[in-house]
């Protein structure tokens, strides 16, 4: 059974032959879909950028820009790369399909197009896109929850955005994978989402916490991991959430991990988190200059708290003004 979202989808059809465009439009409109028509690749890209499109049907051989080029533009943009693109072709060579796959095409249709096959392929891809959109909505809600927690404390305004930026810059300098960079970017936002369970009188307390209050506070990484674990797309983020309060000597929380047992992404987040805390104003002190912040961090490295190599790498990036 098709959802209303699938049935009300908008499909962009790009083909330089008017007869083909009309035929495809009639087929799709008969099934209840909204249809937008483009006569060449450039028009297809312009229309795609100007309105909401759920799926693209593009002829491979078109003037100005080919279907391959249209697909490449759509798939190279992080915002639109999950929009399904189906390439229509009369070509039968294997190299053409390989090129389409390399461009990121989700499916192929051979001309002449048959109504039953067209509708079956379109419905299947739209169902998949609907599931993906739901996942994206779940991530958006999670990110919003994390930002709402940050907003409770006026002194941490912009903290999540800065951590996302700092951690990705440091991770990239260290040569971490693309997946880990994405995890760091997301982790910068959601690392403290578990603080949802911490009462505000503890969360915003200006002075030292009591042992009982500290016990509650130290549960937030575990709770944050539990909140995010149902999202498979966050699997690389979970170590950041759970372990960004661990220390190199094993005196951190929640698991008391030490040294290399602490995941690298978590160690990266820890270093940038400490730096941001020191260089941001607090009710009890002014924001420290970067040089003073790193002096303190180096003292804490000697106590066995932070990863010395990461602290020095990040200090170098700040000195070079790679980090704003």
Kindly provide the name of the CATH class of the largest domain: Mainly Alpha
Strand proportion: 5-15%
User: Can you name the CATH architecture of the largest domain?
Assistant: Orthogonal Bundle
Contiguous low-pLDDT stretches (5 residues minimum) are none
**Major sheet, described briefly?**
5 strands, parallel
Order of helices and strands: HEHEHEHEHEHHHHHHHHHH
Question: How would you describe this structure to a colleague?
Answer:
Strands 2-1-3-4-5 form a 5-stranded parallel β-sheet, sandwiched between helices. With 324 residues, the protein is an alpha/beta fold. Helix content is 55%, strand content 7%. The chain contains 15 helices and 5 strands.
Topology, please?
Layout lengths: L3 H4 L2 E5 L3 H13 L3 E5 L2 H10 L4 E5 L7 H10 L8 E5 L4 H10 L3 E4 L4 H37 L7 H16 L3 H13 L9 H4 L7 H7 L2 H9 L9 H6 L20 H15 L11 H13 L5 H12 L5
Parallel strand pairs: 1-2, 1-3, 3-4, 4-5
What are the defining features of this structure?
elongated, 324 residues, five-stranded parallel beta sheet, 5 strands, Hypothetical protein af1432, 2 domains
